[in-house]
Amino acid sequence: MRRSASRSEPRPTHYSPTRWFSFSPTSVPAPAEHGDLWNASMKGMNRDQVESGRAVLAEAVAMYRTALGDRLVAAYALGSLAHGGFSALVSDVDLGLLLSDPLRSSDPETVLMVAEAAKAGGSELHERLSVFWGSPLTLRGDQPGGRFPPLDVLDLIQNGLLLMGEDARLDFPEPSRVDLLVAGAEFALTFLAGVGQDSEQTSDVGSMRPADSDTVEQLRRQHLWGHG
Predict the structure, then answer these.
(1) Number of Cβ within a 10 Å radius of residue 136
(2) DSSP β-bridge partners for residue 130
(3) What is the pLDDT of residues 97-139, one digit of tens each?
(4) Is 226 a residue whose pLDDT tops 90?
(5) Contact status, residue 98 vs residue 168, Cβ threshold 8 Å
(6) What is the DSSP-derived secondary structure letter of residue 102?
């Protein structure tokens, strides 16, 4: 699974929350300009709710364009805002970012700081913004870095809706069955069972019983998944 942004790196010198907050999202291509793609994703959904989700994406993309400049190659709507089923009550607002290679050591903290600024936008939907990011090299598996778990890579390739930039998804391989199974198991163990979390995080799980510490490594052994 891809490595997520680390909070241990120093903040970039150009970091300025007020700069990102004051940037107008009007310079971002409106999702409505994608016409049929967006209309198809709205089947069976409340139009007002979808528009609210789109507005959060537009604001976030504007902030990332300010922070990253021409290093932001493309931005995509992911998840239920792309493939359908979005609900303003429970759904995340998923955003995928493609940065140019090579990634910089400051990128994780930059992405994190912009996300925190965007999440402070004033609504519950803003708070549920979830940002996935990487570069062509990381999404092809040639280098580590970024935050794009296998299931979200698959969603990007199959369902992602381009918000701005150049679409480069044809160059990305789909994750294997084993990659998807292991990623799902790791997610369940980490976020549901508390494996790999500190004591404070684990205590919040309540009645859920953490699995043994070597379970993830056992799940990585491909012969356990069988064949076919």
Answers:
(1) 16
(2) 94
(3) 999 999 999 999 999 999 999 999 999 999 999 999 999 999 9
(4) no
(5) yes
(6) S
pTM of the model: 0.70
Pairing of strands 161-165, 72-78: antiparallel
Maximum separation of any 2 CA atoms in the chain, in Å = 54
In this structure, the strands spanning 72-78 and 129-134 are: unpaired
Q: Which DSSP symbol is given to 192?
A: I
Residues 57-77 pLDDT 10s:
999 999 999 999 999 999 999
Cα dihedral 184, 8, 131, 115 in deg (nearest 10): 150
pLDDT of residue 114: 95
- CATH architecture of the domain with residue range 17-171: 2-Layer Sandwich (3.30)
Q: How far is CA 116 from CA 26, 60, 154, 221, in A?
A: 20, 10, 25, 37
Q: Which residues contact 20 (CB under 8 A, 6 or more apart)?
A: 63, 66, 67, 114, 117, 118
| CA separation for the pair 112, 20 (Å, rounded) | 13
CA pair distance 64, 188, nearest whole angstrom? 30
Q: Tally Cβ neighbours within 10 Å of residue 18.
A: 8
At 6, list the tokens: 């680390």
**In this predicted structure, what is the pLDDT of residue 126?**
94
In whole angstroms, what is the distance from residue 84 CA to residue 94 CA?
12
Residue 74 sits at φ, ψ, to 5 deg, of -160, 155
**Domain segments of the chain: what residues?**
17-171, 177-225
